[in-house]
Design a protein that fits this description.
single chain; 14 helices; alpha/beta; Rossmann fold
Amino acid sequence: MTATLLNILTGINRTSEPSSGSMVLVNDLYRAMPETRTTFLGRAPVDQGWLTAFDHLITLSTAKRPHGPDFDPYVAELTREVSALIEEIQPDAIHAQYLGFALSLAFARAAGSIPVIALAHGPDVMVAERSASEREAMVEVAAASAAIVAPTSVVADRIDRLTGHRFTDRLHIIPWGIRLTDARVRDQPPTGAGPLSLVHAGRLDDNKSTITAVEALALTDQPHHLTVIGKGPLREHLEQRALELGLRGRVHFDPFLSRAELWRRLPDFDAFVFTTKGMEAFGLMLIEAQAHGLSVAYSDLPGVREILGNTGAPYTPGDPHSLAVALDEMGRDFHRHKALTRAALTNARRYDIATTGRRLRELTLRVTS
């Protein structure tokens, strides 16, 4: 029996390149989703590597005006552009990435009888918690959606609360995943106790709280070494803080790396340090590190705990001393470190992007029927 071919329209209102966790996720997700034809709406310039991830990639022409008094006219103009594209493409379903951002509002208003599935990513939930207008936008997209997908129960619960528990029955939890087949475990894992070679990767901003890792190194009993990979507004401040703490030889800063380059480097480290102190929708980078055989020290946030369980070493979010204790315990106790490495590999196998794609396709088939 021939499987049903789904024609899906989706998009993210950003430059079409794998520049963030959400962009990397959709790049992997729609490549992994079986029996689908996906049209993706994004922004120029377009990373040519993305042309292999989607059957059709269209760059939006409406000028972005995401803030201030021009926002409503901007969404109206974007909705007109999206309406014309929907008429041309005739998708079976629309996947609206982010709840309440401009493109998801345009999808919701232009969809007509085409079913919409809204996918939460985290930043949409965070801004809705801070802003009444963003909450209104989230409610509008939720009301227009046949289903709302969240990567964890923690995110689903926040969406449920923010939308006044009006759409509880539309919420579905589908964990994110990575391309496990591309991960490479180091050939020779650590063979004894001692200082750790640590890595932290991600955007260098206040919520990611990389400063927690830098300041923790000044408090450890052992001379662990930390490599920070990424870019962001706090890069210069972090470098200066490392110098002030006398960590010139123990903290090294590298620029942002593509995911392929980052994955080539991950097996060179002993452990990954995750430092986000606020909301984290999922923590894909944690799974990437675990899939490469790295143990992880992580800030004990509810959503992260849901993903990792007891497969990492938790510490109090934003507390350098708590992180320093966790790192020293891992460095001193080789058997614990080895057990965390084994647990990391086992946990990572739960989050294959192929499973995410299959489950999202099954949900899409249900709402289209």
